[in-house]
Design brief:
Number of helices: 15
Strand order of the largest sheet: 2-10-9-8-7-3-4
Keywords: Aminotransferase, Lyase, Pyridoxal phosphate, Transferase
Order of helices and strands: HHHEHHEHEHEEEHEHEEHEHHHEEHEEEH
Helix content: 40-55%
EC number: 4.4.1.13
Cofactor: pyridoxal 5'-phosphate
Distance between the termini: 36 Å
Radius of gyration: 21 Å
CATH architecture of the largest domain: 3-Layer(aba) Sandwich
Oligomer: single chain
Family: Belongs to the class-II pyridoxal-phosphate-dependent aminotransferase family. MalY/PatB cystathionine beta-lyase subfamily.
Strand content: 5-15%
Shape: globular
Number of strands: 15
CATH superfamily of the largest domain: Type I PLP-dependent aspartate aminotransferase-like (Major domain)
CATH class of the largest domain: Alpha Beta
CATH topology of the largest domain: Aspartate Aminotransferase, domain 2
Number of domains: 2
Domain Aminotransferase class I/classII large: 63-391
Largest sheet: 7 strands, mixed
Structural class: alpha/beta
């Protein structure tokens, strides 16, 4: 279906539904009357096949203690092979309630107090908070920002930071949140070879792996150099971003190395005593096997791309000095307003003048990004038009 048909069928007004994005604005903005483009979830219902799978399971089964459903494992393995050319073994699969919890468990399981953890900034703020909450040092290595507004790694600076701080763990993000960069094989090979040389464990957050809106294909860290780094690598993902189901608390944690996997599972057993989430497994199995779900995802990506192109073209036509990063992946626009606004003006401009709740740049790496905002494009084109017009009318 075309983008208008998709929006008509799946868009939902989430006000009054206890949505964190729509009704939880007071958590960050002390008000609830803004157009919310901050929390990274969608304003679209998931495909009907997933809804039906959940309902059918609940109607047919008691919600008692269960074991992992083999059909769920087969669905995940098939999805990775079909969508991402990535061959995984069922024995590699374990889980966490969500990706961030999985990262926090890895930090606790594989590092000690005051150990250093590296990230490439700007980056999703929960990485920093997960490390600081665990009393680890966060080592943020700034990426370079090229003339074409693409981000790239300063590999010499990355290695120097690892050596200087004796980094034990690197949290990789692919596609990268917030800048929308999809990492190439060559880029990851250079990053991971540095980590391997210095015995740094790699955690690859691949939660946006299905949300590819540009020309560069997603490549899982598991496949880099034919799996050369899998002995010190843990990959994580979830259907929560791809199919807008973050309230189903389940993430895949993929650990090829048996020793690492056993260590992770032993730590997990200390903090999380539960069986499989049967509702999540039913939803994932439907999402990863039903043709309707794959068609839904294709149509969703067309909506996100249309929204990005509209905002990108209209903003730059009127504000040519804006720096908008290419969105190869995710549904998040990363925009630098420094040519038009001072850092101290950003909050007032978006909240009070435009009536928009964005994710502010400093949430992704501090004051160096105070003139940036991240805008969530997984909504209706009408909402994107409202936001774009508000920016142009008030700048």
């Amino acid at each position: 279906m075309n983008t208008a048909e998709f929006t008509k069928k799946y868009y939902i007004d989430r006000r009054g539904s206890h949505s964190r994005k729509w009704n939880g604005q007071q958590l960050k903005f002390n008000r609830t009357d803004l157009l919310p483009l901050w929390v990274a979830d969608m304003d679209f219902m998931p495909p009907q096949c997933i809804q039906e799978a959940i309902c059918n399971y609940v109607k047919a089964n008691p919600l008692g203690y269960t074991m992992t459903n083999p059909d769920y494992l087969k669905a995940v393995i098939s999805w990775y092979k079909r969508r991402h050319r990535c061959i995984i073994d069922g024995s590699w699969l374990t889980s966490a309630p969500n990706v961030i919890t999985g990262i926090m468990w890895c930090i606790a399981a594989f590092t000690k107090t005051n150990d250093a953890i590296a990230v490439l900034s700007p980056v999703y703020g929960a990485f920093d908070s997960s490390a600081s909450d665990a009393k680890r040092q966060i080592i943020a290595v700034p990426m370079t920002h090229n003339e074409d507004n693409r981000y790239a790694v300063d590999y010499a600076a990355f290695e120097a930071a690892i050596v200087k701080h004796d980094v034990k763990l690197f949290i990789h993000c692919n596609p990268h949140n917030p800048v929308g960069h999809v990492w190439t094989l060559e880029e990851m090979d250079r990053l991971f070879s540095i980590c391997q040389q210095h015995k740094v464990l790699i955690i690859s957050d691949e939660i946006h792996q299905d949300l590819i809106t540009g020309l560069k294909p997603f490549t899982s860290a598991l496949t880099v150099s034919n799996g050369a780094y899998t002995d010190r690598l843990i990959a994580m993902s979830s259907l929560s971003k791809s199919f807008n189901m973050a309230s189903l608390h389940h993430a895949e944690v993929i650990i090829p190395n048996e020793e690492l996997r056993n260590h992770y599972n032993a730590f997990k057993a200390l903090v999380y005593h539960t069986d499989s989430d049967v509702i999540a497994e039913a939803a994932i199995t439907a999402a990863y096997t039903h043709p309707e779900a794959e068609a839904w995802l294709t149509d969703l990506l067309a909506v996100v791309k249309e929204n990005y192109d509209y905002m990108y073209n209209k903003l730059l036509a009127n504000l040519p000095e804006l720096r908008i990063s290419p969105m190869d992946g995710t549904y998040l626009a990363w925009i630098d307003f420094s040519a038009y606004l001072k850092p101290e003006e950003i909050h007032d401009f978006f909240e009070n003048k435009c009536g928009i709740a964005p994710s502010f740049g400093e949430w992704f790496g501090g004051e160096s990004y105070a003139t940036f905002v991240r805008l969530n494009l997984a909504t209706s084109l009408e909402n994107i038009k409202i936001a774009t017009d508000a920016i142009l009318q008030n700048i």
